[in-house]
Design brief:
- This protein is an alpha+beta fold and 131 residues long.
- It has 3 helices and 4 strands; from the N terminus they run E-H-E-H-E-H-E.
- The protein has a single domain, classed as Alpha-Beta Plaits (2-Layer Sandwich).
- The relative contact order is 0.29.
Length: 131
Amino acid sequence: MSYIDGFVIAVPTANKQKFIDHAKMGDGVFMDLGAIRVVECWGDDVPAGKVTDFRKAVQANDDETVVFSWIEWPDKETRDAAFAKMSEWMKNPEKADPRMNPELNPMPFDGKRLIFGGFMPLVELSGNNTA
């Protein structure tokens, strides 16, 4: 069964192209570490909620756009191995993939407001499946 890592980020709207460039460089690392697919989605219809919403979750300002992203892995074991490799890089930056180097590929957003989590799919429909 596949495994999904999900992310929600507030990105300054003016940094859209910087975000695209950052993602194009960094997302390849996940693919090289075994991801099946990486999807980065720029907020287009993100309504305000009465109690909570995506914007509140990441404390987005009026000049920021919410980005919703996910990484699809073939299984949790592949994901865990990839995260272990990236954790090694944090301890030994000189051995890290240069695409993950914040000096070469700086985050065009406030990483402290990024929310993320790992998820086990429960229901999955694709192709000609119907509900």
